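User: When convenient, might I ask for sequence and structure tokens for a protein?

AI:
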Amino acid sequence: MDLGILCPAVGVVASSGKTQFFGNGRQNKCLRRKYKQLRRDLGKKKKLTAIRNINDKESRIMRDINHKLSRQIITFAAENGCGTIHLEKLSGIRRTSRLRGKNKANLHSWTFHELSSFIEYKARELGIKVVYINPEYTSQTCPTCGERNKVKDRNYNCGCGYHSHRDRVGALNIARTI
């Protein structure tokens, strides 16, 4: 049995079709905004040591969140008897992204590499194989008929009648790849 993981939302789908979402992206964004504002205020006061301490604290918090997320994902995989975990290969996403402004800042502060490396080493401990998949069009391709549709909001709707959450569609397509 395989497991497909869509990293941005940490949507996980077992090849049996069981879906589960882990983590809270909005909470992470809120945390990032809080520390960004704190650094901005400290910068105006020229408190450089305090800014370094805040950076360290934020990175420790995000590392802890990633450890907990990876543990939940690996536990889900083990409980569902998954032998392979399929992850998106997001190595060049920062160069190829067409985002602007606030969304670009969110992408650049996202710790996807750290999360995937935690998933990888924890999976290795349990003998679960990790495979990286090209994420191209995974959230735009219908898992039933294969038609590609642009998604305008969080819900995916296809002409064949299939509809689901966009992140679930991506995770399903990743789980079925190879």
Notes: The helical segments are 25-44, 48-79, 93-96, 101-108, 112-126, 166-176.
